[in-house]
Design goal:
10 helices; elongated
């Protein structure tokens, strides 16, 4: 099968997830600074989650540029990724309503960890389909970012029970690592 339906469906799901998140944003109840301060935790959670979804969309876009054909394994691996991404709005809202509380911060970390694992499984499914000498396999190489991220998520989840602020710092650190554009796929595509 071609990749076009997979790409369109994935783009649509991510757009819906972002729409759900923005609809969950709290509006200040009042017209003063105190009312605005009251929604800062929700906005901070939203902003971090939006950055994560943008990172996934961007990397998914690059990932699919290495693909010409998909199979059932790839479709299921991609659906697994979309499932975990679809839970981000709920975790975002819960953490925003309970900012800097251990369990919501830890659950938020789990909800960030699971798409990272799902993305890794999608990469493996693509490499399985395309072979160990494919553009994607060459581009990923050792994939240092992909290996560091789950470790930081698990660290953040543990830190949530020590000090939720440290957990948030760990989650922000992962986002910062991925905000730096990953040009590996572009580079290999240019070279081939």
């Amino acid at each position: 099968m071609g990749k076009d339906r997979l790409t369109a469906f994935s783009d649509g799901v991510i757009a819906i997830v972002i729409t759900i998140m923005v609809l969950e944003l709290k509006v200040p109840h009042g017209a003063d600074w105190a009312a605005l301060r009251g929604v800062v935790p929700n906005f901070a959670s939203y902003m971090l989650s939006f950055v994560y979804l943008a990172i996934y969309w961007n990397n998914h876009h690059h990932l699919l540029h290495t693909v010409t054909k998909v199979d059932g394994l790839i479709l299921w691996a991609n659906s697994n990724l979309l499932f975990w991404l679809s839970l981000i709005p709920a975790a975002t809202a819960w953490m925003g309503d309970n900012f800097l509380v251990s369990i919501p911060a830890a659950v938020y970390g789990v909800i960030l960890l699971m798409p990272a694992i799902a993305y890794l499984l999608l990469q493996k499914a693509l490499i399985h389909r395309q072979g160990p000498h494919s553009v994607l396999a060459k581009a990923l190489g050792g994939d240092l970012k992909g290996k560091i991220s789950p470790v930081l998520y698990v660290t953040g989840i543990g830190l949530a029970f020590v000090d939720p602020r440290l957990a948030i710092v760990a989650y922000i650190l992962v986002a910062a690592i991925w905000l730096v554009p990953d040009r590996r796929i572009e580079k290999v595509l240019r070279e081939s």
